[in-house]
Amino acid sequence: MSAAYWRRAMNTGLAAAARPLPLPKAGAVTASTPAPVIDPYEASDAPRWLKFLWRHLAARHVFVFALLLIYPFVATPFFTFQIAAQSLALGLIALSLTFLGGYGGMVSLAQMTIAGIAGYAVSILGVSGASGQAMSLAWPWWVVVPFALVIATTVAALIGWLSVRTEGIYTIMITLAIGVAFYYLVLQNYSVFNGFQGFQKVYPPTVLGIDWRSPVPFYFLVLFWSLAGYLFVKWLVRTPFGIALQGVRDNPRRMAALGFNVTAHRVAAYAVAGLIAAVGGILFTWYNGLISPNSVGTGWLINILVIAVLGGMRHPIGAFLGGIVFVLLQTFAIDVIDRERFNLVIGVVFLAIVLFSPDGLLGLWAKLRSRFGPRQALVSPTPRRQA
Amino acid sequence: MRVNKRFVVRSMVAAAALAVGAFGAGGAFAQGGPIKIGLLATLEGPFAAGGADGMRGAELALMQRGGMAGGRKIEIVKASSNANPDVAVNAVRKLVEQDKVDIMVGPLSGSEGIAVKDYSKTQPNVTFINGGSGAQATTLVNPSPNFFRFNTEGAQWMVGLGKAAWDKGYKRVMVIAEDYAFPYSQVQGFMAEFCRLGGKVPVKAWVPLGGKDYASTIARIPKDVDALLVVLGGADAVNFLNQYEAAGGDKPMMGGSITVSQDVLNYRGKRRDSLVGTISAGPLADAFDGADWKAFVADYKKNFPVDKGGFPSPSLFALVYYTNMKAALDALDAVKGDLSGGQAKYREALSKLELKMPTGTVKLDGNRQAIGTTFVTEVVKDSKGELTTRVLRKVDNVDQTLGIPKDQFKIGSRDEPACP
User: Fold this and answer.
1) In whole angstroms, what is the distance from residue B253 CA to residue B197 CA?
2) What's the confidence (pLDDT) of residue B15?
3) Cross-strand bridge partners of residue B197
4) Which of A187, A290, A342 comes nearest B85 by C-beta?
5) What is the pLDDT of residue A18?
6) Which residue, among B86, B122, B185, would best test binding to A if mutated, counting the most A CBs under 10 Å from its CB?
7) Model ipTM?
8) What is the chain B residue with the closest CA to A190?
9) Structural element, H or E, at residue B100
């Protein structure tokens, strides 16, 4: 592969990334919501949210949503719980990295640490087995969950505040260092984190008479929060804050010159990503039913990055696609090849995807579409009507 | 270039389609014919070598009867974990719910065992038999009616060492052990007997798992102890020996079940000679000269020679996986392959099984936990000047509560038992 080709690929990649949301003109941040060229629903007097849905929902959205709703009733409990619910929970954690990396330009390896902090908070404050050592405070879940979210988000903001002073590879290094430090903290601290053994039997509560850990309810619980996270990110990147954040990603100096507080935007992005990771972390802990130092070890820190890159960092859906592929590989690679070499398959698939499409599965999809489908722009999160 | 790219894209699409087809087909052959046994061991992570040897042990049990049990063909479906409980449960869930195995053998490490036991309660139609895991709580706290363990565990492995230490004249012993469940149980197995005889353990030093610096621990060794009980993994034990030697220490050592490994026997430091006389205990002893044991070792060596990846002699993990797989197959023979009625008959056969093992007879207690044999060994110098072990004593019928009445028995922890 020649250097010229590589340069071209990089340039087109950049152009495509910049295309969906061009930088707002100086000072016009609030007026930047892209107005549709023609709005057929302008005259209708339907409520605002309905008009919003009309404008933004496409057939494929309805189709995918219906599929997600029917899925648990068609699939076996194994596929509902272990494949789908696990993918979505991991996807949600990876989504926080996609948001941070794709829209904020900051690659943090500590997202699993934040998820783990939320998981540990739920285990320590809530109910767990803890080998009968009365280490868990057994507070009710409606106190525990908000507490866990607040703690994790605060820590995320602190991590952000520490690491925004750095750029590129140094951000990766500092967040990796924080992640590894947290791993050793929980591994060697016995009075609070219960050391090597961690916490067992950390299950979601039974609310409204439903056992939220049985496969179908748990699937819907995770699906709800995944959709919420997905829509939240989609919405957030179009708010003035989101637009400014992308401005900071593309040219922090210029944004600073325009009067934006670059550091504050970045720290806020870390906090928001931390909240998403915390929700995912609680769900993932409930999925496993336990948390131990290995859940926040280096392997998992990297896995989250793998999931995000595998799916593609350009669009929030990439995180969930990456999650599905990752979980399928983890589960079934051992059936495909010699039992003792199955990690090779995982590595080769990851390598192949990254090699053929530096933009992950999303990039692959865009390539396929431009080759076989009708001609149109690459990934286009812009409203359909503009196309 | 262009043609090339199109080719690559198309072949990737084709590969994806093939892969989906393969997964789909995998689910189609779920029922009928042979009995499926799921086999889980750690093929990744810190115990990868041990896990692979565990698999060899389990396979050996099946090879010895030509792949048949109870008149039916046995099909093994393997899975791997990395010693993490979450990974182990995911792998077991796949074997049980997706591959539809009838019997499950595994996992390997302690916290995995507890997690799989908890999971087994949600799958009453499948019989779970342990692989190598040795956490006490697995069968002592909330035992699961369909989880069986035919291997003895960490505390049982140390029975006999307390008496051997007392006989050697050790009256006060300091404990140096890693800070998690398995060493807790090992220390308990030693102390239960040692304290009963009148021995004292004034200091217990719990070192973090994976720690490499023992300087602060060495500084805490009191002058008036007679010996050290070192319960560290083999390589860490060598680390400790080096640092203890550098600090000028001279107390004799005793080892846990995984301490006196080949790493330690190959130790080349100045204190090498002082290792002679080091006693330890465990469920197997390479030097045991029972005829059944020799036959087992020969069979292992024949099927898994060193040049094909086998160990020079079957490891602890090979033995425990062999034990559990053999139990699963022997019970299948006893019921002639009949798994009907929610496997009720099969489970009864398992509970009543008197398993003939190369090391002795194993039977189960009321919590479906093994009562078995332990060996006390001592390091000696052979004629060529190499360090090796010899069997000091063989203790039969070791039960899980170490001879203490069940209602008084507490699971070992940092502070339990204590006799300062």
Assistant:
1) 19
2) 54
3) none
4) A290
5) 42
6) B86
7) 0.73
8) B179
9) none
B28 touches chain A (CB under 8 A): no
Identify all chain A residues contacting B12, using CB atoms and an 8 Å cutoff: 352, 356, 364
- Percent of chain B whose predicted confidence (pLDDT) is above 70: 91
CATH, range B156-282+382-408: 3.40.50.2300
Query: Domain with A284 in it: what CATH number?
Result: 1.10.3470
C-beta atoms of A288 and B86 within 8 A = yes
- Which residues of chain B have a CB within 8 Å of the CB of A331? 90, 94, 98
The pLDDT, as a whole number, for residue A183 is: 92
Would the CB atoms of B9 and A371 count as touching at under 8 Å?
A: yes
B142 touches chain A (CB under 8 A): no
- Its sign, for the CA torsion B294, B296, B297, B299, is positive
Give per-residue pLDDT as tens, B122-163: 888 899 999 888 888 888 888 888 999 998 888 999 999 999
**A339 in Cβ contact with B43 (< 8 Å):** yes
Closest CA to B387 of B271, B230, B231, B229: B271
Q: How far is B265 from chain A (nearest CA, A)?
A: 28
Q: Which residue of A has its CA nearest to B48?
A: A340
CATH superfamily of B35-151+290-371: Response regulator (3.40.50.2300)
pLDDT tens-digit map of A191-206:
788 777 788 888 888 8
pLDDT at position A25 over 60? no
Range of the domain at A124: 54-386
Domain total in chain A: 1
The torsion of the CA quartet B312, B318, B323, B324, rounded to 10 degrees, works out to -170
